[in-house]
Amino acid sequence: MDGIFRRKEEEKRMGAEGRLPPGQALTNKFPVLHYGTIPTVDLTTWTLRIWGAVEQPFELSWEEFNRLPRTTLHMDIHCVTQWSKFDTTWEGVALRTLIDEGLLRLKPEAKHVLQHADHGYTTNLPLDVMLQDNFLLATHFNGEPITPEHGYPLRGVVGAIPGRADLKTPYFWKGAKWLRGLEFLTQDQLGFWEKAGYHNDADIWKEQRYASQG
């Protein structure tokens, strides 16, 4: 009972601070939700593929990816299934870093990105959202490598940075587990859950969970 009471008090505090989106509830756990089975990974053959509306498609090996400059983000994450986890820490590579390092050269018409993951899973975001400070190609969670059930070795992560109301924040499914490719598009293309009726924009503050919710 003490644990439930403390959780409710913390949830109330987050609400008062404007950090708890509508319809969400605080969790101290990290629920596991995904489509398909957890893939087996061989890092000696693993690659991240970049293609589409880019000047030059390319692939990065695991070793090459981990030589890129690292970014650490402290964010609150919010799942469409109504749980919220606060003050999480993620480490990885920002998409903008690929541009700054001269690896990713986008064509002017590139406006959207489709994240491709193992098992053919996809999810989509506008390019400008993925270039924000709150999107990361993440390898670590709270100081440790991401576990297999949460997307090892690489996943997209999007969350809310406290105090940054200027950033668009979609629900957590908009970062793909077991990420294997980024396809840059001139026109939007729905991903797996978006085709199944989930909201394409998925704004946490507007509670855009399903396409029928406007």
Tell me what you see in this structure.
The chain is α+β, with helices and mostly antiparallel strands and 214 residues long. The chain has one domain: Alpha-Beta Complex (Sulfite Oxidase, Chain A, domain 2). Helix content is 15%, strand content 29%. The chain has 5 helices and 11 strands, in the order αβββαββαββαββββα. Strands 1, 4, 5, 8, 9 and 10 form a 6-stranded mixed sheet that branches. The longest helix is centred in the N-terminal third of the chain and has 15 residues, at 2-16. The mean pLDDT is 95.
Summarize the structure.
InterPro entries: OxRdtase_Mopterin-bd_dom (IPR000572), OxRdtase_Mopterin-bd_sf (IPR036374). It is built from five helices and eleven strands; from the N terminus they run αβββαββαββαββββα.
SSE blueprint and pairings:
Blueprint: H1 2-16, E1 25-26, E2 47-52, E3 58-61, H2 62-65, E4 71-78, E5 83-93, H3 95-100, E6 112-117, E7 122-126, H4 127-130, E8 135-141, E9 144-145, E10 155-158, E11 179-185, H5 192-195
Parallel strand pairs: 1-5, 2-11
Antiparallel strand pairs: 2-3, 4-5, 5-8, 6-7, 6-11, 8-9, 8-10
Protein name: Oxidoreductase
Pfam families: Oxidored_molyb (PF00174)
**Quaternary status:** single chain
The CATH architecture name reads Alpha-Beta Complex
CATH homologous superfamily annotation: Oxidoreductase, molybdopterin-binding domain
Mean pLDDT: 95
Portion of residues within helices: 10-25%
Rg calculated over all Cα atoms: 17 Å
How many helices? The count is 5
The biggest beta sheet is recorded as: 6 strands, mixed
CATH topology: Sulfite Oxidase, Chain A, domain 2
Question: Termini separation (Å)?
Answer: 39 Å
| Coarse morphology | globular
Number of domains: 1
Which parts are unreliable, with pLDDT below 50 for 5 consecutive residues or more? Answer: none
